[in-house]
DNA sequence: ATCCAGGATAGCT
DNA sequence: AGCTATCATGGA
């Protein structure tokens, strides 16, 4: 546990004795796309159909618009608060090259996000920039997600597979995601059909084709061990090795994943003098070095490299 | 204008 | 299995 207990406040909760929790680090380390800074140290996000705010004040960390039941059922896990990051950081800091990055992103926590939203968001992330990814995800929610009113304003949940299956490829192209529209449309269809077939499977025997579609059920994929999970995710169009690693790490609890993008490649090259390594090589190098803590190491490296615009050569 | 952004894919060898 | 051109889009 990385907090001691809760204290009810006006319309929210205060985390008492919270450790390793800095909103700026958590929401700006590139793992999520639905959180925005509303004030210094205060962020607003939409998670599983709820709008909430997180603020860091002199007196501690506050969760706004969250009651104790929401916290127990959703947000304790979402913020990964049952995990102690102290020992993780200590272990990773034994590596002098990583210590600097761990210190720079000392308040990072890896969120446990929704698999479907993470899948679609990271398909959009391919060869794209973070501000534009966020804009695209926001537009998808506005067009196809369920509206939520909060503080006199209207926000939108990320759509379910059923809701997003109403979007055509042309609709999605209108969002401004370019060539990724086809991937998103086809992947949404695959997830939606797998969900339907999963329900059907409770009442009757499936055909061979249906059994194959069932392999695309996100629940099932999430329950697979690392390697099989990584392979299964890549059966979705628009999902390659890096995006699969992100989905595993950010929404399926697979902390041994090591997503390698341009920034992590630069960071590995910068810190570990590993130039001229291909992406797959860099991935294996990282997993061998960091093992079950690969995902955490990757986030500290990514945040440091990107915020400080690490240049190699 | 050219390059780049949390890459993936089809078509090569 | 590993390499390459191509894929939209907008900002630097």
Give a structural overview.
By secondary structure, the chain is an alpha+beta fold. Among the domains are: 5-82, TATA-Binding Protein, CATH 3.30.310.260; 115-252, Hypothetical protein, domain 2 (Endonuclease III, domain 1), CATH 1.10.340. Helices cover 50% and strands 13% of the residues. The chain has 16 helices and 8 strands. The chain has helices spanning 23-27, 68-78, 85-93, 96-104, 115-124, 130-144, 161-164, 169-173, 180-200, 208-214, 218-223, 226-233, 241-251, 262-272, 279-290, 294-307, and strands spanning 5-9, 12-16, 35-39, 42-47, 50-57, 60-64, 147-150, 153-156. The strands form 2 sheets. Strands 1-2-6-5-4-3 form a 6-stranded antiparallel β-sheet. Strands 7-8 form a two-stranded antiparallel sheet. A hairpin with a 2-residue loop joins β4 (42-47) and β5 (50-57). α5 (115-124) runs antiparallel to α13. The longest helix is centred in the middle third of the chain and has 21 residues, at 180-200. The chain is globular and about 55 Å long. The mean pLDDT is 96. It binds a DNA duplex (13 and 12 nucleotides) through residues 30-31, 122-123, 125-133, 173, 176-181, 183, 234, 237-243, 246, 259-264, 278-280, 302, 306.
């Amino acid at each position: 546990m990385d907090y001691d207990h809760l204290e009810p406040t006006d319309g929210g909760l205060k985390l008492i004795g919270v450790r390793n929790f800095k909103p700026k680090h958590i929401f700006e380390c590139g793992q999520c796309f639905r959180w925005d800074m509303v004030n210094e140290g205060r962020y607003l996000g939409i998670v599983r159909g709820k709008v909430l705010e997180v603020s860091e004040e002199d007196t501690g960390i506050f969760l706004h618009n969250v009651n104790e039941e929401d916290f127990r059922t959703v947000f304790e896990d979402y913020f990964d608060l049952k995990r102690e990051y102290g020992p993780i950081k200590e272990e990773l800091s034994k590596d002098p090259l990583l210590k600097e990055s761990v210190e720079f992103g000392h308040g990072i926590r890896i969120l446990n996000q929704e698999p479907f939203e993470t899948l679609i968001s990271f398909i959009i992330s391919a060869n794209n920039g973070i501000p534009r990814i966020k804009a695209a995800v926001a537009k998808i929610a506005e067009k196809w997600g369920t509206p939520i009113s909060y503080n006199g304003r209207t926000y939108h949940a990320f759509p379910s597979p059923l809701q997003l299956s109403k979007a055509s490829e042309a609709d999605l192209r209108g969002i401004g995601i370019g060539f990724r529209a086809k991937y998103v449309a086809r992947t949404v269809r695959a997830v939606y059909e797998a969900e339907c077939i999963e329900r059907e499977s409770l009442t009757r025997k499936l055909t061979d084709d249906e059994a194959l579609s069932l392999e695309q059920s996100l629940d099932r994929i999430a329950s697979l061990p690392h390697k099989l999970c990584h392979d299964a995710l890549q059966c979705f169009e628009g999902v390659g090795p890096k995006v699969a690693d992100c989905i595993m790490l950010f929404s399926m609890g697979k902390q041994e994943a090591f997503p390698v993008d341009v920034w992590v490649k630069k960071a590995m090259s910068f810190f570990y003098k590993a130039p001229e390594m291909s992406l797959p090589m860099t991935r294996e190098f990282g997993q061998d070095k960091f093992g079950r803590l690969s995902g955490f190491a990757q986030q500290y490296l990514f945040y440091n490299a990107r915020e400080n615009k690490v240049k190699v050569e």
